[in-house]
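Dear colleague,

As promised, here are the two records you asked about, laid out in our usual form so they can be pasted straight into your sheet.

NAME FIELD: protein one
SEQUENCE, THEN STRUCTURE:
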Amino acid sequence: MPTTLLCHNSHYFPASTFRPILSCYLVLSSNYSQLLNIIFLILCFKIVMNDEQQPNGIHVTRFTLQSVYAQTDDEKLEFLYESGSTNIVVNGYTSQHEIAQQVDIFIRKMNSIPAFTANLTMESFNKRSIC
């Protein structure tokens, strides 16, 4: 059964980024569902984590993120985490021209998943608010 968690990778996320969330975790660790709701409200992403084994036997963790502002169920970001490295998975959503350009700019060139998700959140919010 998938568990909803916050993805952390020191390569992309400076430790200081998560100090407020860690504080929330320590306060709310006795009530896990409250913690998940707060993370969802703060980040505007539902985050689902699944452990998987690749054909070569290596264990990886797949993080699936879906924005609260997504217009369809197919608008999901997927990341594979293995041994301290996080890579975005190309899927139907991330292969769309507009999203692929953002992946290239924010993740590949600027090495920043937070900048990518923040930009994507603002664009999705603006599209949803205009409609």
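NAME FIELD: protein two
SEQUENCE, THEN STRUCTURE:
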Amino acid sequence: MSAPLRVVVHAGSLFSRKFKPLSSALSECQALIFYTVQRQRRPQDNRSDIVRCVKSCQPNDIDCILDRVHSISHTVISLPTFREEPLLEEIVFLRTVSPAQTGISDIVFEVLEGNFQDSFDVIKRYENGLIVGVVRQVKPITGPRHIVLKLAMNYVVSGVVSHRNIVNVHIFVSEFWF
């Protein structure tokens, strides 16, 4: 597995020093993500790529500062076609650096989009003192199919979402069961 590619989204361009609106920087990040997903589709490339765009606002950019999304990540996985009901197949682990503690803060995992025929769910688990979100396949999916599962990791403080990270999982389901 290769090391994750970290792409920092300043309130400017990812690839130049000229500042652009945040939406332009995110568009450039999306272009890089498209390239990574297309590269992953090649059969000779059997590694997993992660592209992470991290928000970094200019001090006077109020819209950027108030936007609760702190990062957008894209990852790619491939799955075989399951001919029968999977037994809650765990396919993605959303690891946090937040300690598993009770109190005024919490992390809530949520499926936002792309849950093809309600085939996936996400649960919270505590492992080694940290909070982990586990995405499970709960229904069979027949391929070939490309699904983009959009997930949110909501950081909640005193009952209010303080910020969130978005994770887009590009799932390629093979037409074969092996």
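A couple of things worth noting about protein two: The first helix runs from residue 22 to 40. The chain has two domains: 1-67, 77-178.

Best,
R.
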